[in-house]
Amino acid sequence: MIDGDMQAFALTLDKFLEHAAKWCPDAQVVTARDGGAIDRIGYADLLVRSRKASVLLADLGVRTGDRVATLAWNSQAHVEAWYGIMGMGAVCHTLNPRLTAEHLAAMVVQSQARVLIASADLAPLAGQILERVPGIEHLLLIDAVHGTAAQGRGVLMEPLLEAATGEVAWGQFDETAPCGLCFTSGTTGAPKGVTYTHRSSFLHTLRALQADVMAISGADTVLAVVPMFHANAWGLPFAAPAVGARLVLPGRQADGASLARLIAAEGVTIGVGVPTVWLGLVEHLEAVGGELPSLQRIIVGGAPMAPALMERLEQRLGVRVQTSWGMTELSPSGTVAPLSTLSEAAVSGRPAIGMDLLLTDADGVALPQQRDVEGHLRVRGAAVIQRYFGHDAPATDADGWFPTGDLARIDAQGNLMITGRAKDLIKSGGEWINPAEIEAVVGALPEVSLAAVIGRSDPKWGERPILLVETQGEVSDEVLLASLRGRVAPWWVPDAVYRLPRMPLAATGKIDKIRLRSEYGGG
């Protein structure tokens, strides 16, 4: 007897754009340019230009498996480069322009990229990278203002794109082939490269689109404020064309005023980004007025959401805020709060199919009880790292679980709550203090915009906690510290309060605790 069979259908990312071009050809990718100009393109035309990008790269010697670096903002041209690189089987190595040239050069040396695609306004930074990486043979500049001349070794990509002829076949590789390379932020040591595969990112996209996850549909207009250089913009450049949603890209302008104009003009229904982005938006609207009636949801992640900020957003904007948790090593989504449940700032959501969670002790031994206890969080799934770029040893344990470095709880309903980072714990007098629990209490005060707790050297106790806050109203030190009494152990209460006009943020938009420790942690 001969069994039946199913067609081979490789899970490669080029299929998302090809699907959108065929079935939603006029759905737009919208890019905000400096000076208020707006670029628009339908998915059908975007496909044509992305294929031309593949031809151009092939003419420059790029082959299957080669890494191509990008140093660019969220824009149409960057999306075209992504699909042009990945569609032909090369690997897109995204670089964060908020890092130094030295850090970026070290990453490019590891990836061995010979082509760098950069936004024109980042040409000076790109030039500094080229000075440190002789292996880069070509610098292509995108998003140039009309009439801009190329700088240094850079060549404007647009004329080359228009002149490109011929065709490069897409998808002619195994679905397990690498498609992307993104380095971690390096908050716990030297940055490490995470390699994404076509299969892992394809399955990550299908998971993100579920009704109890991001729930994006063809009726939505999605504003991707989360950068494309930060963990693949949480997969939005794949998810939007997969369902034919309009994709709105803010370029380099992510301030509150610019985002408010863009949301209003384009009828954005879903906004995605870190909490500090939405803090800027709500502060702008509170200062100047205005409404954003099209906006229905905001999906936040990348850093804890202060309860007071969540309440401000939902009341002032009339939106639902969905909290989430993830990391570069997870492609990056781990959990998202479902729309079917009432969101809480402390809850990071539930895992969808394809993602599993495990709580262990400090030695990696699974806790006998997994609900309503705190433990060290480990994960595994179809889009979770197996090993870091260039590393022989796996990043997972013998059972395939990846240790995230987070402390967490899982409640009776399966909701994940990140309770802290193991590396952030403060050891005072031989006992541990969890800064995240203090930050959650203080951050719930309506006068507090952002709160951070770090350990300060102490000759008697080794370390003692101090509190740093950015406030939006008058609140005394006594009130800040009094909010903790009865909520945390008395010896957890910080010894001092420091007020910052602006909380320092790292390149990923998270609070920069490395800088805070450097400036305030010395005793």
How would you describe this structure to a colleague?
With 523 residues, this protein is of the alpha/beta class. The protein folds into two domains: 14-410, 3-Layer(aba) Sandwich (Rossmann fold); 425-520, 2-Layer Sandwich (GMP Synthetase, Chain A, domain 3), CATH 3.30.300.30. The chain has 14 helices and 24 strands. Strands 2-1-11-10-12-13-14-15 form an eight-stranded mixed β-sheet, sandwiched between helices. Helix 2 crosses helix 3 and helix 9 (256-266) packs across helix 10. The longest helix has 17 residues, at 43-59. The radius of gyration is 23 Å and the shape is globular. The mean pLDDT is 94.
Name given to the CATH architecture of the largest domain: 3-Layer(aba) Sandwich
CATH topology of the largest domain: Rossmann fold
CATH superfamily of the largest domain: ANL, N-terminal domain
CATH class of the largest domain: Alpha Beta
Low-confidence stretches: none
